[in-house]
């Protein structure tokens, strides 16, 4: 759909053209939090549009469900209301709309808005569906057996910490934890020396399921409300000491950054793609994870980019330096398979749950989605344009993640930035 908007900044906008219309929660001028849609360089105040009498039926219900500054109830409404809201808003914003003058009263300049978490996050689960990342990390610790035998049968994940998820722009405080220095037999407690990022796709759950009720793979897509970018910050030295036998804990729970706009499946529809054929010798998914439609259209073609700036780079007015350029097509398991496996044991997914894909590294070094891979476990530094080198992140470093969908014949859409700056631990350890 190559229609134009009467909002000039939306036409050809690299992130938020008319064809995107992501939903989020914002505030402006110190006002209350309310729901909005990103369009060009503006945020459209949905409650203002509703109060003008320009939305009806399911679209009206959808906006009413966002009152109170959260999309939690909106997520639970499901696809019919989501599509109705998208269609009615698109009609109001399309070039030639008879309501343009009224709608214009409810546009807020993006630069004057604060974008918040879109919803209270019920639960957070992080998966491990990027097989290239799994192999790369496995090689660092198990050179002869990098990929464990269950990986190609099970969409592996672990339960994360929802309370420390923050929107783009919130600083990351360097975490403290136990580490075991090389050659030492006794751990010490202190700030991490090996702080890392992880490039991931976030999946927002819409309608949930009842306790004890699995979600069939054929309908799993209907339980997804939308997508975002996700940076699962990781303290690699803390992780190395704590992860056996139960897996990540303090090394992951201190902070997770997400892009705050919900990119809907409808906006991503033109960018769906077939799941790549599994290599010869790989097992087929078990029946409960196998669906022809999901295999034909279960992934998206989304470019993923990671950039870095340092204090020295910013002082010298150097542009952000690209560290990685990957793509969501490297996912070994689809979002629908993640949802279905999560609920196969009867686990209750709830509106506002967030799933992370795990690090989405490509097969080439320029596509690696973490410093652990880019520096080969901290052995080979990355050279920056400022003359600095990085093994892992230092205080003052800012990591910026971006995502964009590009396909001939369709308007390109983006996710908005997912960024955060690392700051020093400001409190002493005291008697902890």
Characterize the structure shown.
By secondary structure, the protein is α+β, with helices and mostly antiparallel strands. The chain has 2 domains: 8-116, Roll (SH3 type barrels); 124-423, Fumarylacetoacetase-like, C-terminal domain (Fumarylacetoacetate hydrolase, domain 2, Alpha-Beta Complex). 20% of the residues lie in helices and 25% in strands. The strands form 7 sheets. The protein has a 7-stranded mixed β-sheet. Strands 9, 19, 20, 24, 25 and 26 form a 6-stranded mixed β-sheet that branches. It has a 5-stranded antiparallel β-sheet with strand order 4-3-2-1-5. Strand 22 and strand 23 (389-390) form a beta hairpin. Helix 2 packs across helix 4. The protein starts with 22 loop residues before the first strand and ends in a 9-residue tail after the last strand.
CATH architecture of the largest domain: Alpha-Beta Complex
How large is the radius of gyration? 22 Å
Number of helices: 12
CATH superfamily of the largest domain: Fumarylacetoacetase-like, C-terminal domain
How much helix, percentage-wise, in residues? 10-25%
| Count of individual domains | 2
List the strand order in the largest sheet: 7-6-21-13-14-16-8
Predict the CATH topology of the largest domain.
Answer: Fumarylacetoacetate hydrolase, domain 2
Kindly report the average pLDDT value.
95
